[in-house]
C-alpha cells in the first residue's frame, strides 16, 4: 500500500506544479513579462515582476533604469535579506555568480532586468 500512496503523492505534486506554472504564465502575459533565465522560486519571481511593473508604470515618460534597479534591490533586501543586486537596461552584458535560488533575468516591455542574490560573508581582518 505504501508504494501506491507514494505514487499518488508524486503525481499530485507534479499536477500542482503544472497548475502553478500555468498561473505564472497567465501573470507573465498580463504584465508583459518574459523570463529569459531563472532558478528563482515562482513566488519570488512574481514579486519581482509586480515590483518592476508598478515602478515602470509610476515613471513619468522616460525609463529611469537606476531608479528601477534601486527599487527592486531595496524590495528584495527588505523582504528576503541581503545581498541582492539588480541591473536594468535595454542593452547590457553580464556574467555573475549567484546564490542558489537567487537568480532571475527577465524582460518587461522592452526593458531587461537581471536580479540576483549573493552570499554575504564577514571579512577576516
TrEMBL record:
UniProt entry keywords in alphabetical sequence: Cytoplasm, Cytoskeleton, Dynein, Microtubule, Motor protein
GO biological process: microtubule-based process
Primary localisation category: cytoplasm
Signal sequence segment: none
InterPro entries: DLC_sf, Dynein_light_chain_typ-1/2
Molecular function GO labels: dynein intermediate chain binding
Top-level lineage group: Eukaryota
Record-linked Gene3D superfamilies: Protein Inhibitor Of Neuronal Nitric Oxide Synthase (3.30.740.10)
Tagged with keyword Cytoplasm: yes
Keyword Cytoplasm: yes
Subcellular location(s) per record: Cytoplasm, Cytoskeleton
Record-level GO cellular component terms: cytoplasmic dynein complex; microtubule
PANTHER family: DYNEIN LIGHT CHAIN
Family in the record: Belongs to the dynein light chain family.
Protein name: Dynein light chain
Amino acid at each position: 500500500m505504501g508504494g501506491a500512496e507514494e505514487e499518488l503523492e508524486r503525481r499530485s505534486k507534479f499536477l500542482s506544479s503544472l497548475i502553478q506554472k500555468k498561473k505564472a504564465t497567465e501573470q507573465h502575459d498580463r504584465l508583459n513579462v518574459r523570463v529569459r533565465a531563472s532558478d528563482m522560486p515562482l513566488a519570488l519571481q512574481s514579486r519581482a515582476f509586480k515590483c518592476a511593473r508598478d515602478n515602470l508604470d509610476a515613471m513619468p515618460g522616460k525609463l529611469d533604469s537606476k531608479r528601477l534597479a534601486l527599487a527592486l534591490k531595496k524590495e528584495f533586501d527588505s523582504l528576503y535579506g541581503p545581498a541582492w543586486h539588480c541591473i536594468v537596461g535595454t542593452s547590457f552584458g553580464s556574467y555573475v555568480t549567484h546564490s542558489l535560488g537567487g537568480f532571475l533575468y527577465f524582460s518587461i516591455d522592452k526593458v531587461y532586468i537581471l536580479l540576483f542574490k549573493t552570499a554575504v560573508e564577514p571579512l577576516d581582518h
